[in-house]
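ESCALATION

Customer reports they have been waiting on this structure for their group meeting. Please prioritize. Original submission:
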Amino acid sequence: MPAFFVFIEFDKKEIAQRAFVVHVDNQLITKVLKRLHEVEQSAKKNNFNKKKMTIHYDESNILEATNGACLKERFLAHVSNDISDYISNKKSHLESTGYENGCVQASFTIEGIDNLNSLIDVSLGISKKEVDITKLRGVDARFGIKSSIPGFSLEIAKLALPKPQPMAGGKIRFREDRLSAGLVFPVKIFLTPFNGMVPNELKKMRVEGGFFDLILTPYKGIANYSFSFGEGFRLEIKEFSNALKLLSLLFSSGKNVIAELISDSFPKFDFSVRSKHQDIDFSNELKALESAAKILNIFGASEKVDISFTEIKRYSNQIFQMESVMVSPPSSFSMEFSLNEDNYDNGKEIACIFLSSTPIGSHLFGFILVLTGGVKTIGDNRYQLLPKEVNIAKHIFSDKDEPISNDELISAIESIKEVYKKNFNVISYPYTRIREFKKAKTRHIPDSTRPES
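Update from on-call: job pushed to the front of the queue and completed.
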C-alpha cells in the first residue's frame, strides 16, 4: 500500500509554517530492508524496537502550501492513476530487492586437477558435462549478507552451470606477418570467475567468432581452435570469403599466423596460431564468392545476401557463368537459330532476348539480356548471329523464398521487345522456359539454340 512520511515544521509558532512529504519508494524500501537484514543477521541481540534509522528530507519534498489539497495532490502524484499497478510493482520490489546478485551463497570443494579443468571448461561453455564436487554448503543471502539459518548441505554432488554469457565484445585480426592488412572478424569474449581461484597454468579464456572457437591458455602459451561451417550456418558473401581465406592461410602455410585480440574492455592481446600443412583447397569456392561479390556490385544490391558452404559448392559453376555473361564482350557470344521468314525483315538486324538467373545464397539474381547484330547464313534456314552489342536490359533481384510471378517476368520481356521491334527483328525464348525462373533454374546462353521469331 502507499506509505508516506509527512514532516511539519512550526518554527515555534502555533500554525504550521512548512510541510514536507517523503514517499516510501523503492529506494527507501531497499534502504530499510537492508538495515533490518543487517540487524536480523547480527550476532548481537536484535531488539528491533530499540533500533533507529534517520529519514532525510529537503526542499525537493516541500509542499507548495500547508493544506489538505496540496497534501492530497502530492499523494496522488506518487501513486498515479492505477493503484493496482502501484501495489503490484511495490510488492515485486519488496520480494526481489537485495537479491540482484543471487539469492544463495554456496561453497564447495573440488578435488584433483582434472575436476578443476572441467570446472573451467564448463564455466566457459567449452564443455557441457557436470563437475564432481564435495562438501556443498548453501545459505540464503540478501544484500550480500548470509543468513544465520542453515540452508542445504551435501557431501557429494554434481555441478552444472547455465550457458555462459560473453564478458565483452571485440574483434580479432589474423595476419600472415606484421606488414599485411590481415583478416578481421567480430568476436565474443568469455572469461570465467574461477580463473582467480586456480593455478596460472589452468587459467583459460574463450573467443567465439561465429564459425570458429579459440581456447586460449595464456600461461602455457597454448591456443587451440576449431572451425565449423555446419548445417544451417550462413555468412554474408564477403564475410564467408574472409573465413575461407583464413582457413586457407592456416592450413596451407604450416607456419605461425599472428593474431591480435582487440576489445575496449582490456588491452590488446597478441598471440600466434599454427596448423600443420593440410591439403585443403578452397580456391574454387573463393573464386565463386569473388564472382558473387562482383554480381552483387553490378546489381547495386544494398540488402544483405548470406550464403552457406553447401550453396557455394552447389551453385559455383552457375555463378561463374552468370558473371562471365554479364561482363563478356559481344564477340564472346555465339548463337545459331532458324527463322520464320514470313516475319523476317531483311533490312533489319537481329535482337535476341534471353532470361538468365541463378541463386546466390539467400536471393535470386537474374537479368534479361539483349544481343544485337547482323546475321550470317550457314545453311538451309540456319543462321548465325554476329553480335555487335550486348545489353543487360533488366536486372532481376528477389528473395529466394518470394519468387517473382510468371506474369511479371513475361510483362518485363514484352516491354523490352516493344523497344527493339522498331529497328530489329526480335527473337526470344519460348515463355515455357521463363516459368522455370522461379524454380532457381539458371538459364544461360548456349552455343546453339532455336528461339521462335
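Sent to customer with the following note: Residues 431-453 have pLDDT under 50 and may be disordered.
Escalation resolved.
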